From TrEMBL:
SUPFAM superfamilies assigned to the protein according to its UniProt record, in alphabetical order: Integrin alpha N-terminal domain
Organism whose genome encodes this protein: Adineta ricciae (Rotifer)
Membrane-traversing stretches: none
Swiss-Prot/TrEMBL keywords: Signal
Protein name: VCBS repeat-containing protein
InterPro entries (UniProt xref): FG-GAP, Integrin_alpha_N
Pfam family, any one: FG-GAP_3
Amino acid sequence: MSATVGYINADNQIDIVFFCDDTAKLNILLSNGDGTFQKAIEFAVKDYKWIKDINVGNFNNDQSSDVVLRVQSEPVGRLIILFGNKDGIFQEQTVLPWATGSTALATHVSDLNYDNVSDIVINSPYEHTVQVFFGSVDGSISSPMILSTGDASEPRLLAIGDLNNDRYFDIAVYNLNYLHITVFFGQTNGSFLPSKPFFTGMYLAHVFNLVIGDFNNDSLSDLALICSSEEHTVVEIYRYEKDTFQSKQKIDIESIKHAASAIVTDLNGDNHSDIVIGTSSPYAIYGLLGYGNDEFYLHTIYSSIHTGYYVHLIGNYINNDTCADVISINDLSHSIDLFLSTICGCLSD
């Protein structure tokens, strides 16, 4: 089960969009603004069943949220765009006339060239590339711009943000085989400089997430590389200084094991970046509450005795307060768990 959130029906409430593999239907949960949702609206996705990613964007600049689906199929994968009507109903799907490659791992949506139209970024580990598709106001999508991460690099993780404070979006990629992060620094009109690699110290554990946040409260974006094993979880923070990335903090958390997903948000409304980590065995959610100085306080949001879950976390403001909430997608149990935050950073399910 894949899911995301967005403003689907133009009422300024965060809605949930998820795809059910069993029914091959897209489901829209329109928010009531208080942490509850209306009955699901179902939308059939023709001819495709295996949806791996869902993202919300605006691909034709009509003030309505659209949905892009990444379909993993043989011999190639494809992208499907569903154009929204501001009422939770979507127009006939548009299947893009080009293939993304059968090994695409994740889809990201952002307005890279500041034209008020969403663009799509995909990392393809076995093609050793990042592919960038630019949207246009007429709803069309460009042919992909190919960014090479290096021969046999296998780019596994991707994050988008302004890492060098020049007001252009940059693309950061963790390359599994090189054990380093490649950064493509953004330029005007969505162009990118040649890749710039820097090495990491994550050699032994499973690296599972690359996230961006402001962890020292200097209004500049930092990178956090997160790895986990059956023994511990390690978070390492990098900051761009003097034309390179420097490791600023390494946090070793023995109490968190088998981590599967992580996001950056502000759980307690203090304007500091927090890191939320979900584990699979057992199923649990933890918050690293930031102090704004690269230091964190570990808080248990939820814990259980259940094991074997695949956890995907989403953070957003569900019930219109000043604290971010957490949505946990459990792929194996086919469930969506919603944790509403309070001002102290505690969450209730």
